[in-house]
Amino acid sequence: MSETFFEVAGLNTWFFTRAGTFKSVRDVSFSLRRGEVLGIVGESGSGKSVTGMSIMGQVDEPGRIVSGSIQLDGEELTTLSFDQMRHYRGRRIAMVFQNPLMTLNPLMRIRDQMFEAISEHESMPQAEMQSRCIDALRSVGIPSPEDRLSAYPHELSGGMRQRVVIAIALLLNPDLIIADEPTTALDVTIQAQIIHQMRRQIDERGLGMIWITHDLATLSELADRILVMYAGAMMETGTTADIIGSPRHPYTRKLLESVPSLNVPGEKLRQIRGSMPSLLSLGAGCPFRDRCEFATEACAEIVPERVFSPTHRVWCHHPIEDER
């Protein structure tokens, strides 16, 4: 596998409001190689999407990146202006959102929206743009792509609209794609098809991908590595085999136990007791300690990083023994 081309180090993204400072992303670090999929998983409010928006340079006020580094092929992105980042969005880094109707303009045909995405960064004849758009739609499994170019978004099914959004993200062959829960609103069959298409695109094009989700089952099929987040902080990171087969953090274990398919038929579904703490009142200790069955007084102290292998790291005072 190729060398690391994308790296996030010590990222802190906070929101400064009248109620106080919401520390949505706290000291998050990870890297990515070409042809690799990194899954970021956690409950709602864990900081997954804010991490993605921070990478895109699209954190709106009152939020901002307080500290940390985001580098693409050695180029620092956090110091770029909004206009400078426009040259990276779409061309170098693309994002696929959960709801395609929020991404696609309902008043524009698919052709015009795809042409607009290309024209923002490149100048070429319309015939060449049309050929590129047809190839992009075909690559994500859309039948009769020539006909789909003339359609409006409302004339396509949910699965087709999401494929169009993915095709637009692939138009300029970016180095990195950030997918923010892109299959959540789709039925299981369409989810599987889109996951298969995305994995194929990554393998064929050698792109890097960050797949943001709350669904560990999806990541088990798609991701090479997984980062588990909770209340803005990293809990555990490792290969998919590490996280799914031998979770060491109590929170990761609880997430896996909450998957319905892993529960015994006829028994009550397992769930994580309590709720996530307010991001206004986070201290130096483990944010999961009030919901953790292994918590002790030590968990209120600064959380140590424990390294179990070159790929597997956990931030916990009381990691679980290996039960692989």
TrEMBL record:
GO terms for cellular component: plasma membrane. InterPro entries: AAA+_ATPase, ABC_Ni/Peptide_Import, ABC_transporter-like_ATP-bd, ABC_transporter-like_CS, Oligopep_ABC_C, P-loop_NTPase. GO terms for molecular function: ATP binding; ATP hydrolysis activity. Residues 8-256 form the ABC transporter domain. It is found in: Cell inner membrane. PROSITE patterns: ABC_TRANSPORTER_1, ABC_TRANSPORTER_2. Pfam families: ABC_tran, oligo_HPY. The keyword GTP-binding does not apply. Keywords: ATP-binding, Cell membrane, Membrane, Nucleotide-binding, Transport. Signal peptide: none annotated. It is a peripheral membrane protein. It comes from the Bacteria. GO terms for biological process: peptide transport; transmembrane transport. Belongs to the ABC transporter superfamily. PANTHER family: DIPEPTIDE TRANSPORT ATP-BINDING PROTEIN DPPD, OLIGOPEPTIDE TRANSPORT ATP-BINDING PROTEIN APPD. This is ABC transporter ATP-binding protein. It comes from Devosia ginsengisoli. The lineage of its organism: Bacteria, Pseudomonadati, Pseudomonadota, Alphaproteobacteria, Hyphomicrobiales.
